[in-house]
Every structure is written in structure tokens, then in C-alpha cells.
From TrEMBL:
Top-rank taxon: Bacteria
Pfam families: HTH_1 (PF00126)
PANTHER family (UniProt xref): HTH-TYPE TRANSCRIPTIONAL REGULATOR (PTHR30126)
The keyword Transmembrane helix is annotated on this UniProt entry: no
Domain named HTH lysR-type: residues: 1-58
The protein, known as: HTH lysR-type domain-containing protein
Keyword Lyase attached: no
Keywords for the protein's UniProt record, in alphabetical order: DNA-binding, Transcription, Transcription regulation
Residue ranges that the Swiss-Prot or TrEMBL entry lists as coiled coil: none
Sequence similarity: Belongs to the LysR transcriptional regulatory family.
InterPro entries attached to this UniProt entry: LysR_HTH_N, WH-like_DNA-bd_sf, WH_DNA-bd_sf
GO molecular-function terms, A-Z: DNA binding; DNA-binding transcription factor activity
PROSITE patterns the record matches: HTH_LYSR
Length: 291
């Protein structure tokens, strides 16, 4: 299967007319028809439904078209990078939490010439999948990414503490914490099931139970927390940022780790530079992540 033949196929699929496609490709219509028939024989399937001069894509043709578009788009990107080696480097990274991305973008995009980032908020399973397929270069998460092809290193620890409604004092919280009504007042972020499972497991260890679990998105969660009407386990750095009250006792503090993960085979020089810079940033700011 030749790339040129795939390009011919894509052109016919876009034009849905052999004559128009041939004119666009600057080849004869019979030569184009023969190329498509050869491709169909090679794939052992029909790519087009033919009804006189009218043609449409078959289901197999649509599947092939999607793949060809991806291949040609990737080749175009590679060609552009090879012809412009000094262009801006774009780093693709994912995180288990939007706050990690916010922290990094605030730190690294203040410079007009700074590295550009493609970012996503994903579950650990999605992060692993995209690392293995090179869709992202590295990730930042609160849990280790376990796979033989992935290096996942803990960078710093952070304290996750219990914030509570503002009309309570910390002493009052300790008296009402195990009441039934209190159990109905916990908030959890809706975007991250891994985090919620982790927190609920730790709550069980504290003999705390959330009878009616409320899941809300990150933006709504911040708004709700600012109102100081609910209980929630949140990083102490978030409590400081939002000026939230929190229980300082160690026996109600969850100690977690922040991991940087990448493929074990390594990164390019530019990617490694950004990776190391992010790692040093977290190490430098480690004190802000603990009580």
C-alpha cells in the first residue's frame, strides 16, 4: 500500500467524482480508476459504491478515510517540524487535577516566549493510555501510574485536610463531625473518580461516612467552598488560596504524593528540559503543599 495511492483515495472520497478528482490530481481519469481498483484488491474490500457516474463511500471506505486523514495530517506536522526546527515547542501533558495545570500555566506562561502547553484532565487509566500512545509527553497526578513502560516518580507530598462550614469553630467541628446531618454535607469533585475513591477510603479509615454524596464540577466546587457551607477534603494549598477554615489535626489529615510520569524510554531534549523545570518548581514550592 503506497502513500500516493492513499492520497488518491482521499481525493476521490472528498470529490465523490473520479473526473473532478483526476483533474485535481493532474492525472487521467482511467489511471485514477485503475489505482483505486488496485487499492480495493489489495485491501480485499470495496471502498466506493458505484452507480453510473454517482459514487459514495462504503462503510469500509469511511473507516479507511478516517485513518488516511490522520496519517496525512501527522505527516504534514512532521514535515512542518522538519522544515522549522527552531519553531516553538509545544508540550502535551495531562493531569488528574485541574489545579495542577492552573499552577503550572500561571508559572510558565507569563513569559511571551514560554513553551506552549496542550493540557487535559484525565483519570489515571486515561493518562496511562495516552502516555503509551504518545498522545501526551508526561503527566502530573496524585497517584502513581503503574506500568512497565512508564516511569512514575513521586516529587513532593501534600496534605489533604478537612474544610468545614464557616459558622463552626474547629472545636465545634470535632463535636458534630460524626452526626448524621454532617455526613450529608460533604462535597466531592465530579471529574475525578480515582481521587474520590481514594478520599472515601481514607474517610472510612477515619470512621467518616458521606451518606448523600454530592458531586460537582471543579468551578462549582470552588464557588461552593468559598461560601463555607459544606464539608470537603481538599488540599491545604487550596484552603490557603480560598481562605477556607480547615482541621489542623494530624489524625484528620490525608498525606498524599504528587507524581510526575513519562515513558521510560525517555523524552526529547526540549521535553526533558520542561519536565525537569516542572519538577524543580514543585520541589521549590513543596512547603506550600503541606500544613
Amino acid at each position: 500500500m503506497e502513500l500516493l495511492h492513499l492520497h488518491y483515495f482521499r481525493t476521490v472520497a472528498e470529490e465523490l467524482n473520479f473526473t473532478h478528482a483526476a483533474n485535481r490530481l493532474f492525472i487521467s481519469q482511467p489511471a485514477l480508476s485503475m489505482t483505486i481498483k488496485k487499492l480495493e484488491r489489495e485491501l480485499d474490500t470495496e471502498l466506493f459504491n458505484r452507480n453510473g457516474r454517482t459514487i459514495t463511500l462504503t462503510n469500509q471506505g469511511r473507516i479507511l478515510l478516517q485513518s488516511v486523514e490522520k496519517i496525512e495530517n501527522e505527516l504534514a506536522l512532521v514535515k512542518d517540524r522538519l522544515s522549522n526546527p527552531e519553531q516553538d515547542v509545544t508540550i502535551s501533558l495531562a493531569s488528574s487535577h485541574g489545579r495542577f495545570i492552573q499552577i503550572l500555566l500561571a508559572e510558565f506562561l507569563v513569559n511571551p516566549s514560554a513553551t506552549l502547553f496542550n493540557t487535559e484532565i484525565l483519570s489515571n487509566r486515561e493518562i496511562l493510555s495516552q502516555l503509551l500512545t504518545d498522545e501526551i509527553h508526561f503527566s502530573i497526578s496524585f497517584m502513581e501510574i503503574k506500568h512497565p513502560e512508564v516511569t512514575s516518580e513521586p516529587v513532593i507530598e501534600e496534605d489533604i485536610v478537612l474544610t468545614y462550614p464557616g459558622h463552626y469553630t474547629e472545636q465545634e467541628v470535632m463535636r458534630v463531625l460524626y452526626d448524621n446531618e454532617t455526613a450529608k454535607s460533604f462535597l466531592f469533585p465530579s471529574h475525578n473518580k480515582d481521587y474520590n475513591s481514594f478520599i472515601k477510603l481514607k474517610m472510612t479509615e477515619f470512621s467518616l461516612y458521606a451518606d448523600s454524596i454530592r458531586y460537582i464540577d471543579d468551578v462549582s466546587l470552588q464557588v461552593a467552598l468559598r461560601q463555607q457551607r459544606h464539608f470537603s477534603f481538599v488540599p491545604v494549598s487550596v484552603c490557603r488560596e480560598l481562605k477556607l477554615p480547615f482541621v489542623a489535626k494530624d489524625n484528620l489529615t490525608i498525606v498524599s504524593k504528587i507524581y510526575l510520569s513519562r515513558l521510560s524510554r525517555g523524552l526529547t531534549e526540549e521535553q526533558q528540559t520542561v519536565y525537569d523545570t516542572i519538577k524543580q518548581f514543585f520541589l521549590r514550592e513543596a512547603a506550600s503543599f503541606v500544613k
